Description:
Layout: H1 2-23, E1 25-33, H2 35-39, E2 53-71, E3 85-90, E4 97-100, E5 110-118, E6 120-121, E7 124-129, E8 142-150, E9 153-161, E10 165-169, E11 180-181, E12 186-193, H3 196-199, H4 209-213, E13 224-227, E14 236-237, E15 243-247
Parallel strand pairs: 1-12, 9-13
Antiparallel strand pairs: 1-5, 2-3, 2-4, 2-7, 2-8, 6-11, 7-10, 8-9, 10-15, 12-14
Amino acid sequence: MTLHRHALCTIFATTLAMATSAAAEGSLALFANGEALATEGFVAPELTRDGWELRFEHIFVTLAGVSALQTDPPYDAETGGTPAATITVAFEDAAQMTIDLTDTDADGRVLLGTVAAPEGHYNAVTWSVVPAQSGDWAGQSMVLIGTATRDGQSVDFTLTSSDRHDYICGEYVGEARKGFVTGGAEADLELTFHLDHVFGRLDRGDADQMNIGAVGFDAFAAGGVQQIVLAGLHIGHVGEGHCAVNYR
Protein backbone atom coordinates (compact mmCIF):
# COMPACT_ATOMS: atom_id res chain seq x y z
CA MET A 1 0.00 0.00 0.00
CA THR A 2 2.87 2.38 0.78
CA LEU A 3 4.42 1.66 -2.59
CA HIS A 4 1.07 2.22 -4.32
CA ARG A 5 0.55 5.55 -2.54
CA HIS A 6 4.11 6.60 -3.45
CA ALA A 7 3.50 5.70 -7.07
CA LEU A 8 0.29 7.74 -7.11
CA CYS A 9 2.10 10.70 -5.57
CA THR A 10 4.86 10.41 -8.14
CA ILE A 11 2.34 10.34 -10.98
CA PHE A 12 0.49 13.34 -9.51
CA ALA A 13 3.72 15.31 -9.02
CA THR A 14 4.82 14.56 -12.58
CA THR A 15 1.44 15.61 -13.97
CA LEU A 16 1.47 18.80 -11.89
CA ALA A 17 4.97 19.64 -13.05
CA MET A 18 3.93 19.13 -16.68
CA ALA A 19 0.84 21.32 -16.19
CA THR A 20 2.89 24.01 -14.45
CA SER A 21 5.46 23.92 -17.25
CA ALA A 22 2.74 24.24 -19.89
CA ALA A 23 1.05 27.09 -18.04
CA ALA A 24 4.37 28.89 -17.68
CA GLU A 25 4.61 29.45 -21.44
CA GLY A 26 2.64 31.99 -23.42
CA SER A 27 3.29 33.79 -26.68
CA LEU A 28 4.88 37.05 -27.69
CA ALA A 29 3.97 39.03 -30.82
CA LEU A 30 6.40 41.58 -32.18
CA PHE A 31 5.36 44.49 -34.39
CA ALA A 32 7.10 47.29 -36.30
CA ASN A 33 5.52 50.73 -36.35
CA GLY A 34 6.39 53.80 -38.40
CA GLU A 35 3.50 55.64 -36.72
CA ALA A 36 1.20 58.11 -38.49
CA LEU A 37 4.13 59.83 -40.21
CA ALA A 38 4.65 56.62 -42.23
CA THR A 39 1.03 55.79 -43.00
CA GLU A 40 -0.46 59.29 -43.29
CA GLY A 41 2.68 61.25 -44.12
CA PHE A 42 4.08 64.60 -43.04
CA VAL A 43 0.98 66.76 -43.42
CA ALA A 44 0.14 70.16 -41.91
CA PRO A 45 0.87 71.11 -39.25
CA GLU A 46 3.40 68.26 -39.09
CA LEU A 47 5.36 69.17 -42.23
CA THR A 48 9.09 68.52 -42.52
CA ARG A 49 11.28 71.04 -40.73
CA ASP A 50 11.77 72.89 -44.04
CA GLY A 51 8.05 72.96 -44.89
CA TRP A 52 7.52 69.99 -47.22
CA GLU A 53 4.48 67.73 -47.20
CA LEU A 54 5.56 64.10 -47.65
CA ARG A 55 3.31 61.19 -48.52
CA PHE A 56 4.82 57.72 -48.74
CA GLU A 57 3.93 54.93 -51.14
CA HIS A 58 6.41 52.51 -49.57
CA ILE A 59 8.93 52.52 -46.73
CA PHE A 60 10.97 49.33 -47.01
CA VAL A 61 13.13 48.30 -44.07
CA THR A 62 15.26 45.15 -43.93
CA LEU A 63 15.73 43.67 -40.45
CA ALA A 64 17.98 41.01 -38.98
CA GLY A 65 18.76 39.65 -35.52
CA VAL A 66 15.33 40.49 -34.10
CA SER A 67 15.01 39.21 -30.52
CA ALA A 68 13.16 40.00 -27.31
CA LEU A 69 14.92 39.61 -23.97
CA GLN A 70 14.23 39.36 -20.29
CA THR A 71 17.10 41.19 -18.59
CA ASP A 72 18.15 41.46 -14.96
CA PRO A 73 18.97 44.21 -14.19
CA PRO A 74 16.79 46.14 -16.70
CA TYR A 75 18.81 47.34 -19.69
CA ASP A 76 19.78 51.02 -19.65
CA ALA A 77 20.14 52.26 -23.23
CA GLU A 78 21.80 55.48 -22.07
CA THR A 79 24.60 53.48 -20.43
CA GLY A 80 24.82 50.99 -23.30
CA GLY A 81 26.82 47.81 -23.18
CA THR A 82 25.58 44.23 -23.38
CA PRO A 83 22.20 43.35 -21.84
CA ALA A 84 22.27 40.87 -18.92
CA ALA A 85 19.74 38.57 -20.59
CA THR A 86 18.20 35.73 -18.61
CA ILE A 87 15.87 34.64 -21.44
CA THR A 88 16.07 35.43 -25.17
CA VAL A 89 13.50 34.59 -27.84
CA ALA A 90 14.21 35.12 -31.55
CA PHE A 91 11.65 36.18 -34.18
CA GLU A 92 13.32 35.02 -37.37
CA ASP A 93 13.57 31.76 -39.24
CA ALA A 94 15.55 33.37 -42.05
CA ALA A 95 18.67 35.52 -41.96
CA GLN A 96 16.65 38.70 -42.57
CA MET A 97 13.19 40.05 -43.34
CA THR A 98 12.06 43.04 -45.40
CA ILE A 99 8.92 44.89 -44.31
CA ASP A 100 6.96 47.89 -45.57
CA LEU A 101 6.01 50.35 -42.83
CA THR A 102 3.11 51.60 -44.97
CA ASP A 103 1.55 48.13 -45.32
CA THR A 104 -0.02 47.84 -41.88
CA ASP A 105 -2.87 46.33 -39.92
CA ALA A 106 -5.80 48.36 -38.58
CA ASP A 107 -3.62 49.61 -35.73
CA GLY A 108 -0.95 50.95 -38.08
CA ARG A 109 1.55 48.20 -37.26
CA VAL A 110 3.38 45.47 -39.20
CA LEU A 111 3.47 42.02 -37.59
CA LEU A 112 7.00 40.59 -37.62
CA GLY A 113 6.05 37.31 -35.98
CA THR A 114 4.58 35.53 -32.99
CA VAL A 115 6.62 33.02 -30.98
CA ALA A 116 6.18 30.80 -27.95
CA ALA A 117 7.85 32.47 -24.97
CA PRO A 118 8.45 31.60 -21.32
CA GLU A 119 6.41 33.81 -19.03
CA GLY A 120 7.96 36.96 -17.61
CA HIS A 121 8.61 40.56 -18.58
CA TYR A 122 10.43 41.05 -21.88
CA ASN A 123 12.03 44.38 -21.07
CA ALA A 124 14.59 44.63 -23.90
CA VAL A 125 14.66 44.19 -27.68
CA THR A 126 17.55 43.88 -30.14
CA TRP A 127 17.57 44.18 -33.91
CA SER A 128 19.61 45.42 -36.86
CA VAL A 129 18.70 47.34 -40.00
CA VAL A 130 20.81 45.72 -42.74
CA PRO A 131 21.26 45.86 -46.53
CA ALA A 132 18.85 43.50 -48.30
CA GLN A 133 20.54 40.44 -49.78
CA SER A 134 18.10 40.11 -52.69
CA GLY A 135 15.06 41.67 -54.33
CA ASP A 136 14.46 44.93 -56.16
CA TRP A 137 16.41 46.90 -53.55
CA ALA A 138 19.28 44.51 -52.88
CA GLY A 139 22.12 46.34 -51.16
CA GLN A 140 19.81 48.89 -49.53
CA SER A 141 18.67 48.72 -45.91
CA MET A 142 15.95 51.39 -46.10
CA VAL A 143 14.07 52.73 -49.11
CA LEU A 144 11.52 55.55 -48.85
CA ILE A 145 9.31 56.11 -51.91
CA GLY A 146 6.76 58.87 -52.17
CA THR A 147 5.80 62.38 -53.24
CA ALA A 148 6.86 65.69 -51.73
CA THR A 149 4.89 68.93 -52.14
CA ARG A 150 5.64 72.55 -51.23
CA ASP A 151 4.40 75.86 -52.66
CA GLY A 152 2.60 74.13 -55.53
CA GLN A 153 5.67 72.09 -56.51
CA SER A 154 5.44 68.29 -56.35
CA VAL A 155 8.31 65.87 -56.83
CA ASP A 156 8.39 62.08 -56.78
CA PHE A 157 11.28 60.73 -54.77
CA THR A 158 13.02 57.48 -53.90
CA LEU A 159 15.50 57.81 -51.04
CA THR A 160 17.80 54.84 -50.51
CA SER A 161 20.17 54.06 -47.66
CA SER A 162 22.70 51.25 -47.37
CA ASP A 163 23.59 52.17 -43.78
CA ARG A 164 23.60 49.39 -41.21
CA HIS A 165 22.39 50.24 -37.72
CA ASP A 166 22.30 47.88 -34.73
CA TYR A 167 19.85 48.57 -31.90
CA ILE A 168 19.78 47.42 -28.29
CA CYS A 169 16.70 48.83 -26.61
CA GLY A 170 15.32 48.84 -23.10
CA GLU A 171 11.70 48.61 -22.03
CA TYR A 172 8.92 49.84 -24.32
CA VAL A 173 7.67 53.27 -23.24
CA GLY A 174 4.13 54.33 -24.13
CA GLU A 175 0.61 54.73 -22.79
CA ALA A 176 0.78 51.21 -21.34
CA ARG A 177 3.69 48.94 -20.48
CA LYS A 178 4.26 45.99 -22.83
CA GLY A 179 6.00 42.65 -22.95
CA PHE A 180 4.44 40.85 -19.96
CA VAL A 181 3.97 37.20 -20.97
CA THR A 182 1.77 35.04 -18.77
CA GLY A 183 0.98 31.36 -19.14
CA GLY A 184 -1.45 30.65 -21.97
CA ALA A 185 -1.77 34.32 -23.00
CA GLU A 186 -0.23 36.56 -25.66
CA ALA A 187 1.73 39.76 -25.05
CA ASP A 188 3.17 42.15 -27.61
CA LEU A 189 6.17 44.41 -28.16
CA GLU A 190 7.00 47.01 -30.80
CA LEU A 191 9.95 48.34 -32.78
CA THR A 192 9.19 51.99 -33.50
CA PHE A 193 10.70 54.01 -36.34
CA HIS A 194 10.68 57.78 -35.78
CA LEU A 195 10.73 59.37 -39.23
CA ASP A 196 10.69 62.87 -37.75
CA HIS A 197 14.28 62.20 -36.67
CA VAL A 198 15.07 62.07 -40.39
CA PHE A 199 12.97 64.94 -41.75
CA GLY A 200 12.24 67.03 -38.64
CA ARG A 201 8.95 68.77 -37.87
CA LEU A 202 8.04 72.33 -38.83
CA ASP A 203 5.68 72.60 -35.85
CA ARG A 204 8.54 71.95 -33.40
CA GLY A 205 10.62 75.03 -34.33
CA ASP A 206 14.24 75.46 -35.38
CA ALA A 207 15.61 75.26 -31.84
CA ASP A 208 14.13 71.81 -31.17
CA GLN A 209 16.93 69.29 -30.63
CA MET A 210 15.40 66.87 -33.10
CA ASN A 211 15.24 69.55 -35.82
CA ILE A 212 18.86 70.51 -35.24
CA GLY A 213 19.95 67.00 -36.20
CA ALA A 214 17.30 66.22 -38.83
CA VAL A 215 18.13 66.23 -42.54
CA GLY A 216 14.84 67.77 -43.76
CA PHE A 217 13.84 67.43 -47.40
CA ASP A 218 15.39 70.43 -49.19
CA ALA A 219 18.45 68.38 -50.13
CA PHE A 220 16.24 65.98 -52.12
CA ALA A 221 13.98 68.52 -53.82
CA ALA A 222 15.28 67.50 -57.27
CA GLY A 223 13.38 64.22 -56.85
CA GLY A 224 14.24 60.89 -58.43
CA VAL A 225 16.46 58.27 -56.84
CA GLN A 226 18.92 59.68 -54.31
CA GLN A 227 21.03 58.37 -51.45
CA ILE A 228 20.25 59.47 -47.90
CA VAL A 229 22.61 59.04 -44.94
CA LEU A 230 20.76 57.87 -41.84
CA ALA A 231 23.77 57.32 -39.57
CA GLY A 232 23.50 59.30 -36.36
CA LEU A 233 19.77 60.05 -36.64
CA HIS A 234 18.59 57.51 -34.02
CA ILE A 235 15.52 56.37 -35.93
CA GLY A 236 14.86 53.22 -33.94
CA HIS A 237 12.97 53.28 -30.62
CA VAL A 238 10.61 51.12 -28.58
CA GLY A 239 7.63 53.44 -28.43
CA GLU A 240 9.27 56.50 -26.88
CA GLY A 241 11.86 54.30 -25.18
CA HIS A 242 15.47 54.77 -26.21
CA CYS A 243 18.00 52.41 -27.76
CA ALA A 244 21.76 52.18 -27.84
CA VAL A 245 22.75 52.37 -31.52
CA ASN A 246 25.82 51.30 -33.44
CA TYR A 247 26.22 52.46 -37.07
CA ARG A 248 28.40 50.58 -39.56
